[in-house]
Amino acid sequence: MNILLALLSFLFSINITFKEADMRNVNTGMEIPSVNYADQPYVVITPKGEWVCILTTGSGREGSKGQHVASSISADKGKTWSPLVDIEPPEGPEASWACPLITKFGRIYAFYTYNGDNIHLGRDDTHGWYAYKDSDDSGHSWAEKRYRLPMRVTACDKLYKDGQLVQMFWGICKPIVVDDTVYFSYTKLGEYFLGNGEGWVFKSDNILTEKDPEKIRWEMLPEGEYGIRNPDFGSIQEEHNLAALSNGDLVCIYRTTNGWPAISYSRDKGKTWDLPKKMAYTPGGRVMRNPRACPKIWRCDNGKFLFWFHNNGCKDFNNRNPVWISGGIEKDGFIHWSQPEILLYNDDPQKRMSYPDLIQQDGRYWVTETEKEKARIHEIDVKLLEAMWNQVEGKGESVRNEAMFSINGKEIFETLDVDIPELPDLSKDGGFTIEMQIILDNPKTGSKVLEAGDENSGMSISVTDNKSLAIQFHDNNLSAYWDIDNGMLETDKLHHVAFIVDGGPKIITCVVDDKLCDGNTHERQFGWGRFNPDIRFVSNGKMKLFSNPGIEIRDLRIYDRFLLTSEAIANR
Known about the structure:
Layout: H1 2-20, E1 30-32, E2 37-45, E3 51-58, E4 68-74, E5 85-86, E6 95-102, E7 108-114, E8 129-135, E9 147-148, E10 160-161, E11 164-165, E12 168-170, E13 176-178, E14 181-191, E15 195-204, E16 219-221, E17 237-244, E18 250-256, E19 262-266, E20 277-278, E21 296-299, E22 305-309, E23 323-331, E24 334-337, E25 341-344, E26 354-361, E27 364-370, E28 375-380, H2 382-393, E29 405-408, H3 409-414, E30 417-419, E31 431-440, E32 448-453, E33 457-463, E34 469-475, E35 478-483, E36 494-502, E37 507-512, E38 515-516, E39 529-530, E40 542-545, E41 551-559, H4 565-570
Antiparallel strand pairs: 1-28, 2-3, 3-4, 4-5, 6-7, 7-8, 8-9, 10-11, 12-14, 13-14, 14-15, 15-16, 17-18, 18-19, 19-20, 21-22, 22-23, 23-24, 23-25, 26-27, 27-28, 29-41, 30-40, 31-36, 31-41, 32-33, 32-40, 33-34, 34-35, 36-37, 37-38, 37-39
């Protein structure tokens, strides 16, 4: 009996731990099977409601011999998966970067880069034929016969080996459907390896209904010799992917090595595209930031949009952790984006999540992602998505009444020493937010706004040398610091400021009025900062408020949790 009780207690503790786990942590996701290497885990849903995931896998690292495409099936929304079924064998030739499509009659197509001429350049996964195979039994098996997309020769095709033209390309765009027509984009290369990229689109107006693959019609867009590219953006313009607006116009987003993604619109079904621009939250507005990592756009079933990116100005392949997400609303033919939220993170900052897919079923949302060694699937809290969409539409709901401590301007001037509840343990995914309405009129550098705790543990907010504000906190010999981006706080103007300390990813963010600091005005790669995961408590329940020249606090609120960016903006 004692053993049984102990076992029940153990199982109960596991269940509690699972329920309370931060669903943004990638380790809470459900793993998708792979051989070893795992990339681009993209999912289609069959008429029976099963999920068929197609991914690139192999026994070695990315680009190694044996890389091939395979599929797996889940009948329980990603909890369990069938053994892998090879679409192309690991013995080669190399097959990579498969993107799936399901037709109206249930056939699944997988489109992928296939080294059909067996030409070896070193990395053999981004050249050859644009091939595809099909499955008529929901991914349980794949046809022996493969077909080849009619990729026409254009100006960027300049590589020859042994007198033979070698076309270099790859795709990360899952096909989209617009008025029963299928579109998917891909990146063509003008230089080995990964140089002079430009975007192209394949279009088919009958693949959804035509059962004979030999009769499928294909068109390659844009018209002419040159793809989607801005010559001023440099050599690296790649991983083009598409979404459709409500009227059928197309939008294409892709990565660069400039610290931001690029965006282009087509108003004639892909025949021509406007000159790509820096992607911004609003047309001509503040530029969004992203390293050389896949920026992915999706149109949701409700007609709204989601954008996966990494919200930093790094210019190489690194810094893909955490993943940020922004919600988009279409206005006057353009997408307007919310300030972003953290979607996923790994406790190890060196881990990198990328190449996602979005799954929608029964009003629920999931994303897939890969860290190259593991591919996983994660359910997204619908409230997170709704909060971002509401943010763009100006419908956000204030959560001021959830503050654990609140004091207004009059009380601040009358009371400088206050008791506040103890803040949560940051090392156990706890968090807190300090929010205020404040006016700065040339205050003295180092002037404090507030201070809590003592020499063992505590926090403070003070004026920086550039007349901005910074938060600092410490736990024994461990400390953290982050300041608001330059130029965000104007002199002698009332600002709404929120310092958000998130103990899940161990990240500090700053929201000023209706903007999340992203480092752009500060000319730094990050507008958010990390803190040591061993920091625990930063308050002992006592707080001192300061009355300093040049600082006027109208309201002050403290929350015993991290606020969403959207919540902080709605509180303004």
